[in-house]
Amino acid sequence: MRMTDLDVNFVRENFPAFAEQSLQGQAFFENAGGSYTCAQVIDRLQRFYHTRKVQPYAPYAASQLAGTEMDEARQRLAQLMGVATDEVSFGPSTTQNTYVLSQAFGQWLQPGEAIVVTDQDHEANSGPWRRLAERGIDVREWRINPTTGTLDPAGLENLLDEKVRLVCFPHCSNVVGEVNPVVEITAMAHAAGAFVCVDGVSYAPHGIPDVGMLGPDIYLFSAYKTYGPHQGIMVIRRELGMQLPNQAHYFNADVLYKRFTPAGPDHAQVAASAGMVDYIEALAAHHGISGDLTAKGSGVHDLMRAHEVKLAAPLMDYLQNRNDLRLIGPTDPERRAPTVALDLGRAALPVATALADHGIMAGGGDFYAVRALKAMGVDPAKGVLRLSFVHYTTEAEIQQLLKALDAVL
C-alpha cells in the first residue's frame, strides 16, 4: 500500500549523520549550502576506493567494475530525470559546468545576438553568461520585483525577440526561494526561438525533477546538495549539445557527455552518484511507489515537497508575526522551497553565530546572491540570515529553531 506521508524516521535511518554522536542535539538548517550525505553514496564511495580505485575501462576485472559503476550512475540518473543517458554530464561543480558552457556559447554566438540573464540568480549562473558581453553578445537582464523578489514572466516577454538565443534563470533562487514556473518560461523562450538553461541547484535537493517533462535544454544541479558527492551534474539535450563547439579533447567530440568535460572526471565520485538513485529507490520502495525510475522519482519528489511544505507553515507564520525582520520571498510554503532568507537590518553572521549556541546550524552572508540582494535593497555587507532545510528535517527541529529565534532575535 502506498504511504501518503513521508516516513521521516525511515529517511533519517539512511543518513549516518543522524547517528553521529558529535552532531546530537544540533539541528541542521544550512542545507542550501550542502546537505548531509546518504549512506548509499558513502557505501559506494568507500567500495570504489577500496576495490575499484584503478583506471576505468581497461580489460582487467577491477577496471571493468569501475567503468561499469560510472556508467551505471549516468544511466540511472538519466532515467530518474527522464532524459537520454548521454545527455547527462558530470563535472567538478555546477559553477565549473556553467563556465564551460558559457565558453562554448561564446564561441557559437555571433556579435549582436542576445542572451537573457536574471538578477535573481546565484552568481554561478549569472557571472559566466554576463562576461559574454566582452565578446559583443547583447546581455539582457530580466529583473526581479524589488519588493517581492519575484521574476514576472511578463518581464521576460518584453526582452524576447529574434536575436535572443539563450535564456538563463534559476528553478528557484538561493535567497528568494520562490519556485519559478519552468514549464511556462521554457515554452515562452522556445516560442521565441531561444534555448533555455535552468540552474536547479537550489531546487533539486527538494526532489530531483523530471527534466524531460520540464523541457529546458540545459538543467544543472549539485550532487553535494542532493545527498551525494561533490560533483556538478548537467543535463544538456542532444539537439543543443551537438551544435555547440566541443570543449573537450578533439577525439571526444562525437560523444555528447564528454563534449563539455574538458578535464578527466572524478571516477570515484561519478560512480558514487549512483547512490543518490539507490536512496530514491529505497524511499520509493518503503512508501509503496512503483513504476519506472522516472515515476519513482516523481513520487518521491511529491512526498518530499509535501513534507517540507508542512514543516515550513509554522515557520512562515512565526516570521510573519515579527516586525523586526523582513522575510525575503513568498510567505506561502506551496510557492517556495524551504530556503528562507531574512533581512534583519543588521549583520546576519553574528545572529547565525548566536543560533549555534542553541544547537541551530545556520548561515549568514550574501550567499553569492549579491545582485539579488542589492535589487531588493538589502545591504550585501550585512547579508541575510538563511534558514534552509530539506525532507529529513523533523517537526521537533522546527520547534527547536523557533525557540532559538525567540532567544536570539
UniProtKB/TrEMBL annotation:
Pfam families from the UniProt entry: Aminotran_5
Keywords: Pyridoxal phosphate, Transferase
EC number: 2.8.1.7
InterPro entries: Aminotrans_V_dom (IPR000192), PyrdxlP-dep_Trfase (IPR015424), PyrdxlP-dep_Trfase_major (IPR015421), PyrdxlP-dep_Trfase_small (IPR015422)
SUPFAM superfamilies attached to this UniProt entry: PLP-dependent transferases
Domain of life: Bacteria
MF term (GO), any: cysteine desulfurase activity
Residue ranges of every copy of the Aminotransferase class V domain listed in the record: 28-401
Uppermost EC category: transferase
Name of the protein: Cysteine desulfurase
Organism: Thalassovita autumnalis
Gene: sufS_2
